[in-house]
Amino acid sequence: MNRSLRMPVPPLRRNAVRLGAAALAVLVALLVPAGPAWAHNSLRAATPVQQSTVTSAPTEIVLEFMSRLDPTFTTIVLTDAAKRKVVTGEPVVAGAKSTVQLTDTLPNGTYTVAYRVVSADGHPVQGSYPFTVADPTSSAAPVVEAAVSTTPSAVAAVQTDEGRGAGVLVAGVALVVLVAVAAVLLWRRASRR
Ligand SMILES: [Cu+2]
Question: Per the UniProt record, which residue ranges are transmembrane (predicted)?
């Protein structure tokens, strides 16, 4: 196309600004509803540590969250490799920490800690993680996994922190939009020469 033919057309820069504004509007629309999701409570630390192997059976499970817990809505459930519930005490909440005592010594094997707590905005947050007991001096027979069992990695993948999931999704969409806008702007700048 001849350069002179393009002269009457409004400057391309104006189109670029308009496109940028549209992209910004899309970003704001995506980010605003997800805002409260970032305020959701999440697990900060745990004992036994997530995905760890401990050489002596733990006597308690301690979960520490990012913000204070409501004792009424704090649940911690321990299951063995055969998905049987392990008897524990009731969760004892102190600030952002919750502890359950284990009444019996855990036999060697892989266990899953599942938790459900409530965020400041009232939305529930739940997740789970595995840990393994491998005590070389343990005489108890290890818990055998059920035939259709979940491997530790599959259990880890099941972790459902709703807030984090929404945040990652929004970040992904925002990234795609930004890359698309950048590509269009670069293409327009290149085609102007
Ligand atoms: Cu919420």
Answer: 166-187
